């Protein structure tokens, strides 16, 4: 190869490297979403976990359920009025609430990396993959689903300010929006579309605009969940799991209650005791 050819090749390689380096330098930066985020969630009395934080839980959520799933919800609340758990039985056993219930934590942490954004909500963890991967074809059912997202620099500031994500199943279930057993479809094929972004007027408010698409609904159901960044520089992220605080004991399909003295007791009036066929029966 001649000197002129070698010099030309070298110049081309340098130009290509420089152009690639400039392109990388111009890539937007990732936002500062560090710290503890506390859920803005008026209680309205009763249970705090609900899909729409601006409304009370249960019927007040005004969920656009199909007639079939309205009946499921009514039966769940009727069972709970009699001491049972209804459609909330699995969560009473400390099985994870899954999506979208897991996005109603009292506090959460958002951990941003170039390839994956992690949402840590108590003992639940979500992974939102932002590395450009395609949807997998062999997903195992999970409670949190499989999430793929992408970052957007909407205002051209040079910093990403919106994370859009889509979460698909198959999910494990049954799942419920709240403790009344407000149901998602039993086929566990929900789709959730989200837009995470800071409030335009307050960088210490984080929004999760989430839309649920589900066969138990007559239309997509959208809400805006909001968190406020804690000023505590040393957040005390919860390490308590459901099993540490529950007094519910599920045997077979029946829910019982553990009394303060550690004895099994009925959860509802005239509830039969569990089947003791595998225990040696003592004579009276």
Layout of secondary structure:
Elements: H1 3-25, E1 37-39, H2 67-81, H3 89-92, E2 107-112, E3 116-121, E4 124-129, E5 146-152, E6 162-168, E7 191-198, E8 205-213, E9 221-229, E10 248-251, E11 254-258, E12 264-265
Parallel strand pairs: 4-5
Antiparallel strand pairs: 1-2, 1-9, 2-3, 3-4, 5-6, 6-7, 7-8, 8-9, 10-11, 11-12
Explained architecture:
- This protein has helices at residues 3-25, 67-81, 89-92; strands spanning 37-39, 107-112, 116-121, 124-129, 146-152, 162-168, 191-198, 205-213, 221-229, 248-251, 254-258, 264-265.
- By secondary structure, the chain is an alpha+beta fold.
- The strands form two sheets. It has a nine-stranded mixed barrel with strand order 1-2-3-4-5-6-7-8-9. A three-stranded antiparallel β-sheet has the order 10-11-12, with no helix packed on it.
- The radius of gyration is 25 Å and the shape is elongated.
- The model is unreliable at 18-23 (pLDDT under 50).
